[in-house]
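User: Hand in any protein.

Assistant:
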Amino acid sequence: MINMYEVSETNKMIEQENLDVRTITLGISLLDCIDSDLEELNRKIYEKITRLAKNLVSTGNDIEREFGIPIVNKRISITPIALVGGAACKSPEDFVTIAQTLDRAAKEVGVNFIGGYSALVSKGMTKSDEYLIRSIPQALAVTERICSSVNVGSTKTGINMDAVRLCGQIVKDTAEATKDNDSLGCAKLVIFCNAPDDNPFMAGAFLGVTEADAVINVGVSGPGVVKKALEKVRGKGFKELCETIKKTAFKVTRVGQLVAGEASKRLGVPFGIVDLSLAPTPSVGDSVAEILEEIGLERVGAPGTTAALAMLNDQVKKGGVMASSYVGGLSGAFIPVSEDQGMIDAVNAGSLTLEKLEAMTCVCSVGLDMIAIPGKTTAATISGIIADEMAIGMVNQKTTAVRLIPVIGKDVGDTAEFGGLLGYAPIMPVNEFSCDEFIRREGRIPAPIHSFKN
């Protein structure tokens, strides 16, 4: 049982150290909306979302006001739409009508994002999957609040290289379709390996088919809190360092558990999980990069960065897992470039490169996240970067993801502006040697031998 003493203990963290609940995400299953008639399918989807989520935002606001805990976002995740639309959608344009329906529903209930315009194709693609994937550029261009994801690999099935090749082109097409806003559509598109069913964070959230009809998942975040705590153990050994991170992660996660329990009770929806990820924002003092620098790096990207991140990620999980009945989602430390001022500064200083970021993804929670690259980057090169990141996830039995933004009309030395929590990003250089022949090969990369654990 969480008591009010624990809440009051967090007041300083909230007021001075940027502690917040990043999102309350209501997962809604749309499997019972499936219909062969497209118009009827859209009607059912709109009706179910607006009915179940009508009190989500007001409930979040009430909890925020009563407990004094900032709740930054209220969001919705849904069943992957490729599964829901298969019977009715005979073209990519049919799927776009569903995207527009989802956007209208999101606006009606007041959430800032709705995730699940997604396809799960780690082994193969149905026609429905392919239509949805091909619809993504248009869907993200004509909507405001839709987030999309494609799972192209897993430890059990390997990597679907046909889907990787297609997704490289889709990222490029999405960039073109939204080029008037610095290719912003790509900031709402994630390519996954081992995507979790219960992730509350955008842009990769969707509600897996193993989940209940509706569920509350909460994502907490407190990079600033961890950094402040580590300032008190400067010069101490790794034992003190690890203990401090664990104890801080415990306190942060307890706040998430409280909010999740309250939201579940008030909405009459089961509690799913708390995702205890350290998710940065562009705000000063809310940076994962600054934590790593507090640990002892001159700049993120310096030798030792991957080791420091591995330790941070592990201690966050160890501390947080004791603070909640159910921990899930991604849980650990995020390293998005545009959303973390310390990461932006490291790129500008020349200490952080795309290759170093890739190495860091071997030990952190997500992958190559919110990275702006030159608009001239080819679709094949984007596919190659995706394939590399999927391989890291597949071999290491972890979730990895790619959210690359080829900013049309911009090159290294320029800056892309995304606004709000998405921040801004310097355009990072990309290795320009060709991988075209590799990407043109058809089929899939087999699962690694350690995937056979049945």
Remarks:
- Residues 238-267 form the longest helix (30 residues).
- The longest strand covers residues 20-28.
